[in-house]
Amino acid sequence: MQRLVRLSVLVLLSACGAEISERPCPRVTEFPADLQRQAVAELATAPALARMMDAMAADRAFNRAICR
User: Fold this and answer.
1) Total-model pTM
2) Are 39 and 29 in contact (CB under 8 A)?
3) Residue 15 CB coordination number (10 Å)
4) 8 A C-beta contact, residue 11 and residue 27
5) Residue 16 burial (CB count, 10 A)
6) Can you give the pLDDT of all 68 residues of the chain as single tens digits?
7) Residue 35 neighbours by CB under 8 Å, 6+ apart
């Protein structure tokens, strides 16, 4: 669970690639496939965590739009 929290924080901090904009933007990080699968399995059993991850995804989409 602690690894998932760290993953969540890293994902939240990543917004868009620097090649999209000249201003500095956080980069989107690719996580290993096994870690992604583990996160999906944990999200399926934790609805509150799933809502938090959905909110973070919306945040990232907003940040990407700003960085373009």
Assistant:
1) 0.37
2) no
3) 20
4) no
5) 19
6) 566 666 665 665 554 444 444 555 655 566 778 888 888 887 777 778 778 888 989 998 888 888 77
7) 3, 7
For residue 25, the one-letter residue type is C
Cβ(29)–Cβ(14) below 8 Å? yes
Cβ–Cβ < 8 Å for 20, 68: yes
What is the number of other CB atoms lying within 10 angstroms of the CB of residue 8?
Answer: 15
CA dist 3 and 23 (Å) reads 30
One DSSP character per residue, the chain reads -HHHHHHHHHHHH----GGG-SS--PPPPPPPHHHHHHHHHHHHT-HHHHHHHHHHHHHHHHHHHHH-
The single residue listed with the structure tokens 């870690």 is 35
